[in-house]
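seq:
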Amino acid sequence: MTALDDQFALAASRKAKPIATQFETTRLLIRAGMAADLDETFDVGQASAVALREWMPWAHPSPLRESMEKYFSSIEEKWQTREQLNFQWIEKSTGALIGKGGFHHMDWTIPKFEIGYWLATAHVGKGYCSEAVLGLVEFAKTELGAKRLEIRSQPLNVRSRAVAERCGFSLEGINRHALLGADGSLRDACMYALIFDESTAE
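struct:
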């Protein structure tokens, strides 16, 4: 076998391991998204669209139910194939959906994962996003054996960048024209990363 064959085999073995479908933080239940979450997620996204449309293509110019239906129709399959691990963020005290986020752009050979997230406008400024991202960081470390985590944010998306920095991510640089903006234009990306010590990874 070549080194490439070994890498493919290692990635496959990592993907095959069972992964917990939920965990808790102090105030949140964070669980795997399901097709049945469509209605609630659409309502929350629509209510938050004004604040999100500049950064989130699904909210520009406004959320479309048909588009979100396509996404949720494959959300469980993508979890099973380990293409994406997407979570609903539930406020434990009320049972309400307050945001979403999880892992995408997943490279199981390293393994490294990019974290993406959005928070409902009504819950901004309460520390929920940082709490959830810190929970995802711990999940990636313990459940996924991650060695590297990434967060990419547009330079002007100061709230997203602040979350990355509060959660211990370091700015490695700004990648030119590395993101497609909600309006279809090319945007720069601030690349934040968090590296786990070798002793904590697989």
